[in-house]
Amino acid sequence: MHSVAWIAWAAAAAIVAMSTSNPFYLLVLVAAAALVHGAHRTAGPTARSFGIFLVGGIAALFLRTALVMLGTVHLENVIAAALEGLRLATLLVVAGTFNSVADPYGVLRLAPRRLHEPALAAALALSIAPRTIAAAQRVREAQEMRGIRIGRVRSVPALAVPVLETGMEEALMLAESMDARGHGRGRRTRYRPQRWNAASITVVASACVCVLPFLVAIVRGWGGLAPSTIPLRWPTVSLALVVAAAGLALPGFVRSGTAR
Amino acid sequence: MARWLVAGALVVAALPLPLGVMSEPACAATPDHAGLVVDTGSDSSSYCVALPASSVTGTDLIQLAGEQYGLDYRLGFDGGGVCRLAGVGPADGDCFGDFPSFWGYWRGDGSGGWTWSNVGASQTTVGIGDVDGWAWGEGTDAQTHPRPRDTTFEQACPSASPTPHSSPSRGRGPTRSGDAGRRPVVGVRSEASLVPSASSSTRGAAGTEPGRSDARRASDSRSRALAGGALARGASASVLASSSLRPDAGVPVGAYASALAVAMLLGASFVARRRRRAAG
């Protein structure tokens, strides 16, 4: 799958998630992201970032709701906070899905030559979560083989120090290898260019088509994007927008192909 | 962020209002006004509020009445609810403090009657010539909640001058509306001093001094309104801007479609996961 296809999908899903606090659209989007992850996650350890972002999203949802408890607690307040938290959780799930299906270095290679250095920084920042997760997993396994059980507070240094060290080493290694290949000097060649195939085009097209009804709904103000919580009302749910949100699962039904 | 922008815009929009009221005692004609009726259960006051734009929200109308007439109010739920009006209701921002009683929100139907509002005051549009009504009491729907006194726009804005009118509701208390009607219109400042007397049981003592200064009225109105609310209602009372507590019954087809889509997508992702595991 072409990296641009995943960028288009993630952008569409993020726009949908940010446009609404209606749980009937957000939950469909989360399920669509789960399907895309299930069908396309990469073989490497970065695929774990979906689960970790999902846990983080659920934590954010509960934390946002718990903040209400500091003030006056009423059903309306709690539901308003929970819907905001759900939107945040959905965004995190979309980010986790993007991390787990897209190759961060493939994304990096898309940047135009002049913008390469800022793009490199952005790609490193984007990929820092999956790389740290992978490093932590490796260190954990290694320490367990040495008989050090990670899990107690006292053993945190045994995990944290090697993880930080590995992150530093990886960054240096990446910088050296990119320098050796002429990155940032304007004489880079394209190695194994990513190919556009039918699957990639399908993903881009479906993302564009699915985000359209939401953009129209934002401009026109229909579809119950922001359900009223004060007073508490049963939200309006537009069938068209449910179908559009479910359409973002379409990448889960196409074969990714061999070209990457 | 947006809330600060809105608040800033409101402050900027409201800045010229006190100046305009003070420099032009006999305000412009009624076409750019809207009526606001506040019925605490023992007293009913109506305000002819000058609008800075062709339409405002129901919450804006209350804030404008506060600026123009010193109406005592308190909003809650990030400006989405009305906790306290004319000294009745809790002052601490907890609009649900004494739930069975709350401020019910009614919209004028154009002929003096009232229609129960289905949305909160921050989501309604009040145009020129409209009348909004607030009634304190129990009951969560149009059948059980008390209604304000029937008021047309012409009754709320009888002359060219915006003037608060005080009148007893439900037959309690001495008649005041005739009194206010006979008074010559001498300007907003002197008439505005009637406002506290409408909600306070210390009527007459303060309300009939035409020469009271604006500054003193502003500083006094809140404390006297507080005292009036305490006298009329007891210490704590709670008000709700929303007209309904419970969502409407009936689940629309879109919600079923959404639940079905979630179930199907999760099922498909489970299948996809198993297929991948079997393949490699």
For the structure shown, list the relevant keywords:
heterodimer; A: 260 residues; mainly alpha; 2 domains; 9 helices; B: 280 residues; alpha+beta; two-stranded antiparallel ribbon
Q: What's the SSE blueprint?
A:
The complex is a heterodimer of chains A (260) and B (280).
Chain A: H1 3-19, H2 23-40, H3 49-67, H4 75-101, H5 104-109, H6 116-145, H7 156-180, H8 198-220, H9 239-247
Chain B: H1 2-14, H2 16-23, E1 33-39, E2 43-50, E3 55-56, H3 58-69, E4 73-76, E5 81-85, E6 101-108, E7 114-116, E8 126-127, E9 131-138, H4 153-156, E10 165-168, H5 177-182, H6 188-192, H7 194-199, H8 214-233, H9 253-279
Parallel strand pairs in B: 1-9
Antiparallel strand pairs in B: 1-2, 2-10, 3-8, 4-5, 6-7, 6-9
Description of the molecule:
Chain A has two domains: 163 residues, no CATH class; 70 residues. By secondary structure, chain A is mainly alpha-helical. Chain A contains nine helices and no strands. In chain A, helix 2 runs parallel beside helix 4 and helix 2 runs parallel beside helix 9. With 280 residues, chain B is α+β, with helices and mostly antiparallel strands. Chain B has two domains: 248 residues, Ferric Hydroxamate Uptake Protein, Chain A, domain 1 (Beta Complex), CATH 2.170.130; 31 residues. Chain B contains nine helices and ten strands. Chain B has a six-stranded mixed beta sheet. In chain B, strand 1 and strand 2 form a beta hairpin. Chain B is elongated and about 85 Å long. Chain B starts with a helix and ends with a helix. In chain B, 44% of the residues are buried. Chains A and B meet through helix 2 and helix 9 of A and helix 9 of B.
